[in-house]
Amino acid sequence: MLLQSFSDHDFECGTDEAGRGCLAGPVTAAAVILPPDFEHDWLTDSKQLSAARREALKPIIEQQAVSFCFSHVYQEEIDKINILNASILAMHKSVAGLEPQPHFIIVDGNKFKPYKTIKHKTIIKGDSKYLSIAAASILAKTYRDAYMEKIHEEYPMYHWNQNKGYPTEAHREAIKKYGITKYHRKSFRLLPEQLKLGL
């Protein structure tokens, strides 16, 4: 059973990101403030759910949340500031979009930078412990998946509709065969034998 909240603040938001380990596309974060009485039997860490369940939960979360926001940080920025900083930036941008602003932030994982003067707590595996982080994980994942499906139409040979930019064998084979696109993260090790790519 996931917990409602960590703090005793009225407006506590959960935040999480998706796409950190991908070779292409943005890292996407979401932040969600849920009402204190929110509950749903399916709601858990997005990685534990089927795509169909995530898609079914998305409108429920959006309709019932006090506030929610998601944000993409794209590959150019990831290459400039590194993936950890890009993940935190995406979370900050998502929190910035909440209205009302939260009084407390709970963050999935163990890395975060203070956002303004709002207190925060990092929670390892927070998406399987707290409802608001689980909700944020679902929004981040579904919005990022939708973006990857859109750019798949531009570059179908990389199979982003299936791998969503993660380093699958098919994705790496396509990079070997076709090279890289404007959506690839050039600072990432795209192939085990990267030196041969001539990046």
From TrEMBL:
Q: For a divalent metal cation, which residues are the binding ones? A: D16, E17, D108
Subcellular localization: Cytoplasm
Q: Which Gene3D superfamilies match?
A: Ribonuclease H-like superfamily/Ribonuclease H
Provide the E.C. number(s) assigned to this enzyme.
Answer: 3.1.26.4
The cross-references to Pfam families, in alphabetical order and at most eight, read: RNase_HII
- Name the InterPro entries for this protein: RNase_HII, RNase_HII/HIII, RNase_HII/HIII_dom, RNaseH-like_sf, RNaseH_sf
Catalytic activity field: Endonucleolytic cleavage to 5'-phosphomonoester
Write out the GO MF terms: RNA-DNA hybrid ribonuclease activity
Required co-factor(s) are: Mn(2+); Mg(2+)
What detail does the entry give on cofactor binding?
Manganese or magnesium. Binds 1 divalent metal ion per monomer in the absence of substrate. May bind a second metal ion after substrate binding.
According to its UniProt record, this protein's enzyme class is hydrolase
Keywords from UniProt, A to Z, are: Cytoplasm, Endonuclease, Hydrolase, Manganese, Metal-binding, Nuclease
Q: Where is the RNase H type-2 domain?
A: 10-199
Q: Which NCBIfam families match?
A: PRK00015.1-3
Q: What does this protein do?
A: Endonuclease that specifically degrades the RNA of RNA-DNA hybrids.
Q: Which family does it belong to?
A: Belongs to the RNase HII family.
Q: Which HAMAP family match?
A: RNase_HII_B
Mind telling me what this protein is named? Ribonuclease HII
User: What is the protein's species of origin?
Assistant: Gaetbulibacter aestuarii
Recall the taxonomic lineage recorded for the source organism. Bacteria, Pseudomonadati, Bacteroidota, Flavobacteriia, Flavobacteriales
Give me the gene this protein comes from.
Answer: rnhB
